[in-house]
Amino acid sequence: MSNLIEIQNLKQYFPAGGSILKPQYVKAVDDVSFAIKRGETLGLVGESGCGKTTVGRTILRLYEPTAGKIIYDGKDITNVDMLPYRRKMQIVFQDPYASLDPRMTVVDIVGEAIDLHKLASSKAERKEKVINMLQRVGLNSEHANRYPHEFSGGQRQRIGIARALATEPEFIVCDEPVSALDVSIQAQIVNMFEELQEEMGLTYLFIAHDLSVVKHISKRIGVMYLGKIVELADSYELIFNSAHPYTKSLISAIPIVDPVEARTRKRIVLKGDVPSPVNPPSGCRFRTRCPYATDLCAEQEPEFREISSGHYVACHHTERVN
Amino acid sequence: MSKVLLDMKNVRVSFFTPAGEVKAVNDISFQLKEGDVLGIVGESGSGKSVTAYSIMGLLATGGRVVGGTIDFNGHRINEMTEKELRKIRGNEVSIIFQDPMTSLNPVYTIGNQICEVIIQHTDKTRKEAMERAEELLSLVGINEPKKRLKQYPHELSGGMRQRVMIAIALACEPKLLIADEPTTALDVTIQAQILELMNDLKEKIGMSIIMITHDLGVVASMCQKIVVMYAGKIVEYGSVDDIFYNPQHEYTKGLLRSIPKLDDKEHKKLVPIEGSPVDMLNPPAGCPFAPRCESCMKICLREMPEYTAISDDHYSACWLLQKKEFEGGSGKNE
User: Fold this and answer.
1) Alpha-carbon dihedral sign for residues B203, B204, B208, B213
2) Distance from CA of A75 to the nearest CA of B (A)
3) Bridge-partner residues for B309, per DSSP?
4) Which CATH superfamily is domain A3-88+169-321 in?
5) B144, B155, B270: which to substitute to probe chain A, counting the most A Cβ within 10 Å?
6) Which residues of A are less than 8 Å from B195 in CB distance?
């Protein structure tokens, strides 16, 4: 299978004050590379502020990258006019309450993209397309003329997904699409993402902080910490054979939905907080919270290396950790 | 047998809105014993926070306890005046809110905010209160407490602010700590820190905790007893093991089925609960879960079932259980 999306050494710095002579930057994404195959789902996890959302938005060029390359279907799109690509690359946002215009009806919210890309030749065709999309996401034609406030959170997220699907995209960035929803509704939306992928051959970048959901939906998972990917592997490999101490602590921090196991399990509780991305620690960025850190970690940044087929990790002490 | 600390009996809380009465909490009863940790789970709008606020006498404008009794540590909360309530709030019972970013006052220093509680409830001087505040900060695991006392909330991270909130809540060594989604706004690694801290402090101070959350994982690792709420009603009550290994209500079962498990070795399709949450302005006539329930029967739409006791300490409100009991009962008679 060929790569649909590839990013190479992507960097995204945001100005954060400082003086003219010595400007400071938040290094939100710092030298990140990965590829997503056509039809695949790549999950991206990490704590708030690790840069996972920024990666998603930069791929869509909602932010202009500071450095690096974005390649879509073999073409470098880092500096091109995005309009033709917007049709193929869409996004579903986290907050279904904030991401829909309260003054627009559902038919206009979903239809806006159809108008913009001139995908319908008549009004009737536009309406038909919108209703078709609504049905695909489990809503119906009665919902078309209503306003967002008339819907529950789960239904709104369905509208957001219908809007993303309206242009018949190939690639969708799902930016925490289920974290604002109740547990019982989450499962509905996750299943829908899977069904749509099967039907339409979609490729997803699935961003979330909930590792259980990401593992469920993704084929491979990348773990980010302070703007860098620290580990990337097949989902099951990552969960059951994790090599990076951060991934291990992340997994052990997730409360298990099983009382007996929860009582007996040994947790790795990390000390302290995530350092500031303006002045990240030298060498390995995780070293300030890492139980295995040595002097080497402060001096040298670990290389992102392949430890087994398709399993990459950036740590000096992988052997010792395991 | 430890003493009952909190006794809620047939409590009903309503909000009177321009669109009509919303029965946010509809006839709930449960008890909490000294030293226990009770989890209240349910989706947004199920009335779990309202339950907590009613114990604190903190209902928002328009909200009122319209029936039942709330007895806490010898006080009848729902008959107390604001002035009386103030004496026990922060003293015998305190609360930690969900969002540590907005629940601290941005214009006062951390030290000031902790001292406020201490001075209010004890006859300590300001200087003594500051010393106590410093102790509290180290108790909740904040480094350099002296320096932190002089800082403002915006200088601290989310996890640290939540620790400060806990310090404030613990200032007077309350009998009961209510934690309203205390870790929902935090990252998992920070969540693990906070949960561990709460567990330690519970042992040290010997308080009871009510843990309100929608995260079943948090409940599994923290609580002894669980209340499952749906649309303002308690649909199931039991010990952690009862709820997780022997759930009786269709909603509890559905909830447990719908979460992806991290330790599943293969891809299993999730089984969601279909449908949308209840519109609390127009709740269904019978069991509120009936419209989303797979095993819904005719009677479910008409009438709310009584509780069926599965064991001494485990009960659930579902017609299926009543049916089983009836059939089982008639079997024995023959």
Assistant:
1) negative
2) 33
3) B315
4) P-loop containing nucleotide triphosphate hydrolases (3.40.50.300)
5) B270
6) 255
